[in-house]
Amino acid sequence: MSKTFKTFSPRTKSVILILITIFLFSMMDAVAKILVQTYPSDQVIWARYMSQTIVSIIVLFPILNKVLVTKFFKLQLLRSTFLFFATYFFFTSLKYLQLVQVSAIFQVAPIFVTLLSAFVLKEYINIKRWGGVIIGMLGALLIIRPGSEVFSINIILPAIAALCYASYVISTRFLSQEESATTNFIYSSLIGSILASILVIPSWISIDPTDIFVFSGFGLLGALGHLFLINAFRMSEASFLAPFNYLNLVFGTIWGFYIFDEIPGFFTITGSLVIVSSGIYIWMKDKK
User: Cα(223)–Cα(229) distance, rounded to whole angstroms?
Assistant: First the structure.
């Protein structure tokens, strides 16, 4: 498998890595939704980061002094903070919304990535791709439906998470060209753990012994996912990989139905189709 992987082009490798990333993240989201029904979201976020950090330090301990060396500490801090708040708003929304709903709204992240790619990375975005961005935003509005009876502040949380995540992706894209994947990885873990440890203090409750394994294990899914993500963005530009994130909606729908008996509503399905269609359209135009 590893020998075959090496023969692939950088873009093909990046696609494989991003698909693995999406699957791992979807599993982590499903486990997080289970946990936030019983525990405060701050505590679930803390477990997600702390388990990732502990494993990271153990694995990287022989080279930790080298890995922690960075020329861009302020950017590492900003990037890691973006990821932390993406996780914070996403996990918090899981307590109040369906998994498929959260996954659907979060799919505006690739659209935000495309926007930020143009304004921050100065990547060229043609008029047709701008059209796809606008259509994707309309799809998100179909799900959120501001002004309707179903609208609440909670339904905005996944969109805020998506913007934070897109900002994290863009900063990862820049840092991936300047620093090693392990350096980027360890800083996102450490800084996230520090922020989570501060926030969790007021809301901490005792963990049931039967949940300890789940608490300690589900963060590993995020750890592996982010390691694959960092390497994927070392091989391809952000705007090319962004549309593949829509597969998270497919996985989210499957987990939501299988674990939580969730059936998406009409507006969620319609809005999701519009968002995904816009993403595919943007990607196809990028290929030409």
Answer: 10
